[in-house]
Specification:
Oligomer: single chain
Radius of gyration: 25 Å
Shape: elongated
Number of domains: 2
Number of strands: 19
CATH superfamily of the largest domain: FAD/NAD(P)-binding domain
Structural class: alpha+beta
Helix content: 25-40%
Largest sheet: 6 strands, antiparallel, barrel
Number of helices: 13
Strand order of the largest sheet: 12-15-14-13-16-17
Strand content: 15-25%
């Protein structure tokens, strides 16, 4: 009996894992990669360090993907974080657990992950055709027949669509897979940027650019109603805000903006203190330092970069003595510290988004195999699916797990047990 020929479209995290698993399970495998090199997004992820996965449990993991997370239960139950860590360590790549349950290569170098994949694929005789953009997946009678590139038509028994989303298009993720899936009869849930910085109405004060606020509370308001509240870290960019809490909130913010709703971010710069306790502290500070000017007292409360903005927005004179601060001025400062509100004007584009929300409808993909419910021999894995999780290694694990399952299923032509 001749070997199955599996073609993997896309050489990212899901595609590389799928190709290796298909080859290990007896298939002849070809990766068609449109770029000069595979794995470009892996190499820049996590600021060049690559947060591989997370130590969270499967139920916790699934929660980080929202209502669509349940689709991942089958893939995670077969290949999960501990399996991924073992996979890399068995191949000579040391992995370290860091703050927040995040796993990184011990070397701190994302390209080391790609090196492991390329060596593994070479061992299993996987052919990687670079600079090979796909033009069409040829199907007849509800079954995959071949893949057409700009140079040739390649017959095959199965195709794994692992083209990624539309975020970071410079790495090759330009949304090609959605058109291929649509041509196979699949529904595409409208795509939009996720884990993306949010642009602030009126811009960001130049003095704040580069400032990182830690241990603050951030609330997301849509049409004045609180939708979510998170505690953590926020970064000020040139015209936008980012950082872990903003990226996590950005999905709901983007959806709100696209529905024409008013989206606001509210910062609590002193979340450890209630308004009453903070007010009492301000009273004590002003009494104790009554002969010092207000701007000096603020430097004991805020990061230096925030002081000018606070002075400007609270309308309290910088040179006013602390002992002369009126009650109404103190109350304005209190509200500025506890309810610092910024209106979101828009979100940054796909090229700045970490992942893509939307994609191939999960109802049309078998979660036990990753095979299309419409076309026999067509499998889908990774970001092309309507799946997007929070920061912290969740999205890469989903790519690796769905790729693992798709690769094995495509090689065997049946459910993995």
């Amino acid at each position: 009996m001749s070997k199955k020929h599996v073609i993997v479209i896309g050489g990212g995290a899901a595609g590389l894992m799928a190709a290796g698993q298909a080859a290990e399970n007896g298939a002849t495998v070809t990766i068609l990669e449109k770029m000069k090199q595979p794995g470009r997004k892996i190499c820049i992820s996590g600021k060049g360090r690559c947060n591989l996965t997370n130590s969270a449990t499967i139920p916790d993991f699934i929660e980080h993907f929202g209502r669509n997370g349940r689709f991942l239960h089958q893939a995670f139950s077969r290949f999960f974080a501990s399996d991924l860590v073992d996979f890399f360590q068995e191949k000579g790549l040391a992995v370290t657990l860091e703050r927040g349950g995040r796993y990184f290569p011990t070397s701190g170098k994302a390209p080391d992950i790609l090196k492991v994949f390329l060596h593994w694929l070479e061992q299993h005789h996987v052919r990687i055709q670079k600079n090979s953009p796909v033009k069409e997946i040829i199907m007849e009678g509800g079954q995959v027949q071949a893949v057409k590139t700009d140079k040739e038509t390649i017959p095959c028994d199965a195709v794994i669509l692992a083209t990624g989303g539309a975020s970071y298009p410079a790495t090759g993720s330009t949304g090609d897979g959605y058109a291929f899936a649509e041509s196979a009869g699949h529904t595409i849930v409208p795509i939009r940027p996720a884990l993306v910085p949010l642009q602030i109405k009126g811009g960001i004060n130049a003095a704040l650019v580069g400032l990182e606020l830690k241990n603050i509370e951030v609330r997301l308001l849509i049409d004045g109603k609180q939708k979510e509240k998170l505690f953590g870290e926020l970064h000020f960019l040139k015209s936008a805000i980012s950082g872990p809490v903003i990226l996590t909130l950005s999905g709901k913010a983007v959806d709100g903006l696209r529905q024409g709703k008013t989206v606001s971010i509210v910062l609590d710069l002193k979340p450890a203190l209630s308004e009453q306790k903070l007010d009492n502290r301000l009273i004590r500070d002003f009494e104790k330092r009554h002969k010092e000017i207000f701007s000096e007292v603020l430097r004991g409360i805020l990061p230096a970069a925030l002081v000018p903005l606070c002075l400007e927005q609270t309308l309290i004179p910088a040179d006013k003595f602390a002992g002369q601060i009126a009650k109404k001025e103190r109350k304005r400062l209190l509200q500025w510290l506890k309810n610092n509100r910024m209106e979101v004007s828009t979100h940054r584009p796909f090229k700045e988004a970490i992942v893509t929300a939307g994609g191939v409808s999960l109802k049309e993909v078998d979660p036990k195999t990753m095979e299309s419910r419409y076309v026999q021999g067509l499998y889908l894995a990774g970001e092309v699916l309507d799946l997007n999780g929070n920061t912290g290694g969740y999205n890469l694990q989903a790519a690796f797990s769905t790729g693992w399952l798709a690769g094995r299923s495509a090689a065997k032509g049946e459910a993995v047990t």
